[in-house]
Structure formats: C-alpha cells, structure tokens
Amino acid sequence: MSQELKTKAHLIYINGEWSGADLDELEVVNPANGQVIGCVPNAGEVEAHEAIEAAHQAFQTWSQTTAYERAGYLKKFHALILEHQEELAQIMTKEMGKPINESRGEVASAASFLEWYAEEGKRVYGETIPTHTQNKRLQVWKKPVGVVAAITPWNFPAAMLTRKMGPALAAGCTIVIKPSGDSPLTAIKMVELSEQAGFPKGVINLVTGSSSKIGKAIMENDKVRKVTFTGSTEVGKMLIQQSAHQVKRLSLELGGHAPVIILNDANIDAAVEGVVASAFRNAGQTCVCANRIYVQSGVHEEFVDKFTKAVNLLKVGNGAEETVTVGPLINQASVQKVRHHVEDALAKGATLLTGGVSLENDGGNFYAPTVLSDVTASMVVMHEETFGPVAPIQKVETIEEAIALANDTPYGLAAYVFTESVSQGTRLIEQLQYGIVGWNDGVPSATQAPFGGMKESGFGREGGHEGIESYLESQYVSMGIN
Ligand code: NAP
Predict the structure, then answer these.
(1) CATH number of the domain to which 214 belongs
(2) Do both 211 and 305 map to the same domain?
(3) Does 336 lie in the same domain as 397?
(4) Do 211 and 333 belong to one domain?
(5) What is the pLDDT of residues 31-67, one digit of tens each?
(6) Which atom of ligand 1 is nearest to the CA of 216?
(7) Rounded distance, CA 178 to CA 164, Å?
(8) What number does the ligand 1 atom closest to the CA of 451 have?
(9) Would you give the DSSP letter of residue 462?
(10) Which residue's alpha carbon is at the smallest distance from atom 8 of ligand 1?
(11) 373 has which bridge partners?
(12) 362-420: per-residue pLDDT in tens?
C-alpha cells in the first residue's frame, strides 16, 4: 500500500506497511512562512522496536542475496529518485527552506550515492592471505554487520539518508531510518519510492517521532548492530556513551567549524567565489560551511572589498522562488543564535560590513547575509558553530599564524585553502587537522570521495570506497587441509 502524499498526514513504514495513523501527530512547519505543511506520527519506543524486529527478520534473507541482486534494487531506486527529482526538491524546500536549485542539486547528489554503492557492493572482495604452513589456507570473508539504525539531520534530508542507505543496503544490511522531526517529509517520500523499487518487506523501515525515545530503543535493542549518525557533536557524544553497553558499532558525522586560509598569492576572484559558495550555501547551515576566514595581510583589503560586494548580491527570501539564493533558517532559535554570535562579535570590536539584522519576511526565520571584519579569537563566532549566514574575517600576517589559528578548535571536519603555490598549499594542508580540505575549491564533497571528520567532528567516513567498510565485518577463516 502506498500512502497519498498530497494529504497533510504522513505515516511511518514498518515491515512494508504504512502505519501510525492512531498515534499523536507532530507538525512540520515551513521555515519560510511558519505554515504547517504536514504532520507525522509521534512514534516512540514501541514502534522503534517493531521496526528493528522487522529489519532483523528481513536481514536473514536480504543478507543472503547476491550483490548483483541488491544492485538491481538500488538502481531502480536511483532511477525513481531522479524521475521524482522535482517533487522531492519541492518537498525539501518547503520543509527546511533550502533554495529550490540547491534542493534539486541535493536530490541528484542523493541519487548518486545509490548508483555508486550499487556498483561498489560488487567489489567487496575479502582477502586471501599467504600461509605460513603447508596445511593451512588463510582467508578474510566480508559479511554485512546486521541491522543498521540511521539517524539523520534536517539540513540535508535526502543526501544524508542515501549516503547511509546506499552502502548499508549494498553490503547486505537492513535499515531503520529516523529522520529529523524538522524535515521528515523528504525521507518519507524517498521511502515511498524505495517501496516502488520493490525492496522486500522489512529491508527498509522508517519511524518518525520522539528522538530521545526512538534513540533509546535503538541503543538498547541488541538486534541493532550498527548506528550511523549525522548531527550535532552534543548528541554524537551521548550516543557514544549509550553504545558502550552493547559495544555497538558507530559512525559519527558531527559538527564542524571550518577555517578558510587565503594566502597573498591566491586568485582573489576565485577565493571570493569559493568562500561565498561555502559560507552561504543552505543559508550557512552546513557542517562544512566556512566559519572563519583568515586572510593574509597583502590581499586582505582586496578580498574584504570584493567579498562584501559579492555577498550584497545574494538574494534572501522564500527558497521556493527561483531567484532566491539564501533561504530562511530552520527555526527562531537558530535566528537567536546567529544574532547572539553577531552581537557578541560587535561588542568585542568587530566591524559590520554588511547584514547584521534579522529580516521580518512573511513570518519566516530570515537573517541577512553578514560579513564581519576585525574579528579576534575571543569572539564566540570564531569557535562555536554559527549555523547561519555569517562570514567573519580576520587578518593574519604569516602562514604559521593561520595554521595555528585554524587548528585551535576541537573540531576537524572541513578546511579551505586558497593559494596558487603548489609548494605552499601542500605544506599548509599537511599541517591542517581536518578530514576534508578544499584547495581552491569551496564545494569539495563528491560521492566517490571519503567524507568525515577528525577530533570532535566524529569518526568513520561516508562516500567513496571507504563508505561501505563500516557496514561490513571481517571474518578471518583459517582452514586446516590435508
Ligand atoms: P541534532 O540535533 O544532533 O539532530 C540530528 C538527528 O539526531 C536528528 O534526527 C534528531 O532528531 C536526532 N536526535 C536528537 N536528539 C537525539 C537523541 N537524544 N537520541 C537520538 N537521536 C537524537 O543535529 P541537527 O540540528 O539536526 O543537525 C545539525 C548538526 O548536524 C550540526 O552540528 C551539523 O554540523 C551536523 N551535520 C554534520 C554533518 C557531517 O557530515 N559531519 C552533516 C550535516 C550536519 P530530531 O531532529 O527529531 O530531534
């Protein structure tokens, strides 16, 4: 049975059935205008355990299918997502505010993970190890870990889902999805498409509702063998503690505080373009957003001038309008946080070059794209994730100073470097404690490349050939032979 997505009430998906109509509902609100656009069931521990049980039963047969059979389902799912790209993009923009063109791009990127892992599943080779004795043969067999629980954030509701579903399903795992309550409708539509792709009952399950109750069930149920989480460092740390009881496998893609370093020999026009793309994509609500910009003194003035002009060209508004480039923030708490970061910086001596105000547009959660200069390390904006459209710029004299400032954070997700010198860029990047570096590139993510952080930005990598490893167990087999 497929549910009707045009109605406002949506359902959860357990063992191939849409259910939860009898539960309380949670509203989903459009952050561009405050309108309620749908409701989802407020599920809790009971439904989470049911979904885990369904995934556990389905694992017994799904794990025995061949990688080629699984690739067939994933490719159908990939094609259906592309067929429904516009519909998914419209849902995404409505529920979390992203400009419609960014939503279309995210849907295409989300689909690409399914295609890539459909193929990568066929290359899970295992190993034959040279023996040390005549009467033994040594091998490593690869096996799916089992039931996976995937907890995803609101800011990339499609791509964060398939970056987990693709490798998990390709490896032979079954999955229970818990999307963010702020943007569950994209995930529900995607699961509906997975149903059309024909995945067997119980292979894919989805529950919406209380994150603490569903999270508790996931962490307490010993049938869940792996939890893959993308979200805040705060919740990630809690999951680490909860995972200890059953030694559950974890992959954690957590928060970041990305530095940008622009050296004297950089191509400033390219740097401006790259930093605008990084800092203001998704209204600054990405884990890899440029959070701190360190510019060497020789090009500081030129960069600040050109960058401020480029930021002034951004258009704020409802992301559903084709020409809008900066949508709303997810909620009023986010607007308050951005306001606090900017006010703190100004009180401590920063200069406001543009923005610095929240905008009263149609009841939405808008904040003007903001550029600050003369910032210092003592300001909150320079060490806490802002998650909003704010770009603080600090002048530095030397490369050593820039490296020391860039690494002075508990985070280690993404960093950006702009220099035309291969030697300087190489030496600089070798010293950066970051899992991802964009060198003359403000948008470094790619389906086929490993994405993930160091330090408190988490562990494990998603994307690329590394992305499937965490859904596999290595089983070493030593065979005695005559
Ligand atoms: P969040 O508050 O940590 O939420 C992430 C997910 O965890 C949501 O589904 C949330 O559900 C759920 N959750 C919240 N409390 C939970 C609990 N006690 N037990 C189990 N699950 C729980 O993060 P967010 O605000 O959605 O996302 C923004 C954060 O994600 C930022 O820090 C950003 O940097 C990070 N992020 C990282 C990456 C990366 O790849 N490294 C990518 C994107 C985002 P509810 O929303 O329903 O409460």
Answers:
(1) 3.40.605.10
(2) no
(3) yes
(4) no
(5) 999 999 999 999 999 999 999 999 999 999 999 999 9
(6) 19
(7) 12
(8) 40
(9) B
(10) 180
(11) 351
(12) 789 999 999 999 999 999 999 999 999 999 999 999 999 999 999 999 999 999 999 99
Tens of pLDDT, residue by residue over 212-245, are 999 999 999 999 999 999 999 999 999 999 999 9
Within a domain: 124: yes
Verify that 394 and 473 share a domain, yes or no.
no
* Ligand 1 contacts CB of residue 207 (under 6 A): no
Of all protein residues, the one whose alpha carbon is nearest to atom 48 of ligand 1 is 211
Pocket test for ligand 1, best of 180, 282, 434 (most atoms within 8 A of CB): 180
Per the confidence metrics, is the pTM higher than 0.85? yes
320: domain CATH number is 3.40.309.10
Instruction: For helices 184-196 and 159-171, give the axis angle rounded to 10 degrees.
Output: 40
Find out whether 416 and 290 touch, Cβ atoms under 8 Å. Answer: yes
Which of 27, 237, 254, 411 has most ligand 1 atoms within 8 Å of its beta carbon, as the pocket-test mutant?
A: 254
Do 301 and 246 belong together in one domain? no
Closest by alpha carbon to 292, among 355, 358, 375, 348? 375
Q: What separation in Å is there between the alpha carbon of 350 and the centre of ligand 1?
A: 31
> What residues act catalytically?
253, 287
Query: Does residue 451 belong to any structural domain of this protein?
Result: no
Q: How far is the CA of 191 from the centre of ligand 1 (A)?
A: 20
- Judge whether 471 lies within some domain: yes
CA of 231 to the centre of ligand 1 (A): 3
Q: How many structural domains compose the chain?
A: 2
Q: Is 219 in the pocket of ligand 1 (CB under 6 A)?
A: no
Asked, for residue 3, whether it belongs to a domain, the answer is no
The Cα 446–Cα 469 span in angstroms is 17
Q: Read off the pLDDT of residues 309-368 as tens digits, 9 standing for 90 and up.
A: 999 999 999 999 999 999 999 999 999 999 999 999 999 999 999 999 999 777 899 999
Q: Does residue 282 share a domain with residue 223?
A: no
DSSP-assigned beta bridge partners for residue 148: 175, 226
Is residue 180 within 6 Å of ligand 1 at its C-beta?
Answer: yes
- Asked if residues 470 and 460 have their Cβ atoms less than 8 Å apart, the reply is yes
Domain ranges, residue 302: 258-446
